[in-house]
Amino acid sequence: MPVNLPAAESITLHPVNGVRLGIAKANIRKPDRKDLLVMLLAEGTQVSGVFTQNRFCAAPVLVCREHLHRAATAEHSGIRALVVNTGCANAGTGASGLLHSQQTCEALAQLIKVKPDQILPFSTGVIMEPLPIDRIVAGLGPCLVDLDESHWLSAAHSIMTTDTQAKVSSRRVEVAGAQITITGMAKGAGMIHPNMATMLGFVATDVRISAILLKKVLDYASAQSFNCISVDGDTSTNDSFILLATGKAQMEEISNEHSQAYLTFRDAVTMVAIELAQLIVRDGEGATKFITIDIEAGKSVEECRQVAFAIAHSPLTKTAFFASDPNLGRILAAVGYSGVKDLDQNGIDLYLEDVLVVKGGGRYSGYQESEGQRVMKQSEIRVRVVLNRGPAQARIWTCDLSHEYVTINADYRS
């Protein structure tokens, strides 16, 4: 069961002026389910994105990168729509997959009277299956009929794969004397690991901001959120995180990254991204525990993250958490093989919540396994490793590894 996952229906979702969403049942993989989404953007919307680092990336990722590259040129008219399908990842599909992504853009462009390179396509689902282009093209018209600013929750449902629940976040904040809206959605439950994590994420805002600073906000927010989570250590072929700003808020454009307006906006976007990222971990395939891993007193943030992900990716550690078994030597082993050079094991301290387990590289004399057992039974657990090497620190979020994870992934295509 998902770990303390709030019901999406209970979250207030604020419409973003300049973004309309339309959903259709296109029968892409399963009948009678929402599986196709169009997000129509107001003219002048700034769009920025980061994508999977998997070299075997999906066809839509290649097309998105190219279209965003073109959109950065002066002669381009800007991105006007996003189209997202679930059920088929259009990855490992070769030249035909690339053609199908391009055909999707061409079909939508013709319907909304823009150029194909003003469309960004996204796909998620089964890898190495051909995209059913005829069904997608046929579903675009119904998506456009369904367009509405308020359809964020329905849109979030339409991009789900093995997710058990839609993932959404929304807030309003004051920036430069104006109230701005930030609303986002994401999908992801398995094949989760940076860079990016395996997911699709879309965050929209009505703020006015330069394209250069929007990209800076995107990079900062993704580094603090989607690149700080892991479910199973597998990096997907389709990961995409898109931040778009319609500029419809009544305010001066943010053009100074040192201004209070910029910092307030950046931090608000980051909080939305963190909420979405944590929802992905809480809904990890078969997850029963939500685990925060803090690495402190490292020489650099990079080495702290290296240690954190070694712990998060360890099958032995993750299964111990599932079993509520305080077999905590597994954590020390992961720290040891994390690849940090000149690591002094005699300087390492380990805590489970407030329980000191290891002091100076060895079992703390006052540690009682009953205390470790008490913490391991919790549904939310904090692991804290102190390296005692410097001032740096890092935090990531992960989950346990259960029997259900195997079942879900064994049966995924059936």
Task: Please characterize this protein's 3D structure.
This protein is of the alpha+beta class. It has two domains: 8-282, L-amino peptidase D-ALA esterase/amidase, CATH 3.60.70; 290-410, Ubiquitin-like (UB roll). It has eleven helices and 16 strands. The strands form three sheets. A seven-stranded mixed sheet has the order 9-16-11-15-12-13-14, with helices on both faces. Strand 13 (355-359) and strand 14 form a beta hairpin. The mean pLDDT is 92.
Please render the helix and strand layout as text.
Layout: E1 19-24, E2 36-41, E3 46-51, H1 59-71, E4 81-85, H2 94-112, E5 119-123, H3 133-145, H4 152-158, E6 167-175, E7 178-187, E8 200-205, H5 211-224, E9 229-230, E10 240-245, H6 260-282, E11 290-298, H7 301-313, H8 315-322, H9 329-336, E12 349-352, E13 355-359, E14 362-363, H10 369-376, E15 380-386, E16 392-399, H11 403-410
Parallel strand pairs: 4-5, 8-10, 9-16, 11-15
Antiparallel strand pairs: 1-2, 2-4, 3-10, 6-7, 7-8, 11-16, 12-13, 12-15, 13-14
Helix pairs in contact: 1-2, 2-3, 5-6, 7-9
| Poorly predicted regions | none
Top CATH class of the largest domain: Alpha Beta
Strand content: 15-25%
Strand order of the largest sheet: 9-16-11-15-12-13-14
The CATH homology group name of the largest domain: L-amino peptidase D-ALA esterase/amidase
Number of domains: 2
